[in-house]
Amino acid sequence: MGIFDWLKGLAFFRGRDITGIREEDLDFDKWRNAHRVWRQRLQRVMKGEEPAPDPALVEVDNRCELGQWIHGPGKRFYGDLPVFQELIAEHAAFHRAAAQILRHWQEGDMRAVRRLLNGEYEMRSMRVISDLTELERIILGR
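Request: output the structure for the sequence above.
Response:
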């Protein structure tokens, strides 16, 4: 049985156009991990282990691997779901918070960095992971 036969058996995909869907469009572990990898990158920057990216580029939420999926295939297949709309918003807010952290870090304002890291940034990050998990539950019934 191929992936398309398997998908047609899932209640979520009945009556939906799944033309072009790929296995990675159903691999929510991959997307949660992509988000975690991005978080680790910021941690390496804060430790001085990696050069800081341009905050203006970090703020754009469709440049990272997860963002490319969200604004591409993810939106095509799941964009009508409220949880996916929430994922879009939370992911964008996460990137705005990350860019703010980098700006404060470059200015040497470590108090603001810590406040954002332990507040807005962490909250948005947890919501991104939670939204991906809820999306997986809705789509795959897990």
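The CA atoms of residues 89 and 128 lie 9 Å apart.
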